[in-house]
Design brief:
By secondary structure, this protein is an alpha/beta fold. It has helices spanning 3-14, 42-46, 54-60, 76-84, 96-108, 126-129, 146-151, 154-157, 170-182; strands spanning 19-23, 33-37, 66-70, 88-93, 114-117, 136-140, 161-167, 186-190, 211-216. The protein is globular.
Length: 219
C-alpha cells in the first residue's frame, strides 16, 4: 500500500465530495473563484498545484502585451494573466468542453478573454492562428503535442516570446528543449520540488514524468 494511496484514502474520508464555487486562498491563483472539488482539486485550492512554476509565471509575464494559454481547460492560467497583467489574453483549446469550463470560470470572476477553439498542427500552425503583439508569454499544456506546436511557430521563436511548457514524457521534453535551443532561445527545465515525493502532482496516466520547461531569448 503506497503512501499516496493512504493519503488519498484519508482525504476521501474527511473531505466532502462535490464541486462548488470556491475562492482560492493561497498560491499563484489566490483570489480566483473556481469550481473546485476538494477531493480532486485540493492542490489547486491550497496553492500547491504546479507550485514550482509560480515564480517563473510571475517573472515571465511582467510587461507582456499578449498572453496565450494553449490548452486552457478551466482557465487557471488564463485568469491569472487577465487579473495580473495588462495584456491581451487569448485562451486556446481543441476540446469544446474546455470552452464551457472556461466560460464558467470567467463568469465566476466577472472577467472576459478571447477564446479560440482549434487544434494546433502543421495545417493550423500557432504562428498564424493568433495575432500576437510582443512581448508575449505562451503557456502550453497539450498532452504530448507540445513539440508539434513549437515547430509550427518559427515566427514566435524569433520574437520576444516567453514560453512555459509542460511535458509528460522524456521524449517530448528533449524535443522541446532541442527546438528552443536550435532557434537560439534559452531554455531550462523546472524540476519537481523535493516534497513531491509526499505530495505528488495528480496526473493519472502521466505518473512517470511531469515537468516544465521555461524558455525565452533573455531568460
Amino acid at each position: 500500500m503506497t503512501r499516496t494511496y493512504i493519503l488519498s484514502q484519508i482525504k476521501s474520508a474527511v473531505v466532502p465530495a462535490g464541486k462548488r464555487a470556491r475562492t482560492i486562498p493561497l498560491g499563484l491563483f489566490r483570489g480566483q473563484r473556481m469550481e473546485i472539488d476538494l477531493r480532486t482539486d485540493m492542490q489547486f485550492y491550497l496553492g500547491l498545484n504546479e507550485r514550482e512554476l509560480a515564480p517563473w509565471v510571475r517573472k515571465l509575464s511582467r510587461g507582456i502585451k499578449t498572453a496565450v494559454d494553449v490548452g486552457c481547460r478551466e482557465g487557471y492560467y488564463t485568469l491569472f494573466f487577465r487579473k495580473h497583467t495588462d495584456a491581451r489574453v487569448i485562451a486556446l483549446d481543441c476540446d469544446p468542453a474546455a470552452e464551457r469550463l472556461l466560460r464558467r470560470s470567467l463568469a465566476l470572476n466577472e472577467s472576459e478573454v478571447e477564446f479560440r477553439l482549434g487544434e494546433i498542427s502543421d495545417q493550423n500552425p500557432l504562428d498564424t492562428v493568433l495575432p500576437i503583439e510582443f512581448p508575449a508569454v505562451v503557456k502550453m499544456d497539450i498532452e504530448g503535442w507540445e513539440g508539434v506546436a513549437i515547430k509550427s511557430a518559427p515566427r514566435l521563436l524569433a520574437e520576444d516570446v516567453r514560453w512555459i511548457v509542460e511535458t509528460h514524457s522524456e521524449a517530448v521534453e528533449a524535443e522541446c528543449l532541442s527546438l528552443f535551443r536550435n532557434a537560439g532561445v534559452k531554455a531550462q527545465i523546472v524540476p519537481n520540488a523535493w516534497w513531491r515525493a509526499f505530495v505528488p502532482e495528480q496526473r493519472p496516466g502521466f505518473c512517470d514524468h511531469n515537468r516544465w520547461i521555461v524558455a525565452a531569448r533573455d531568460l
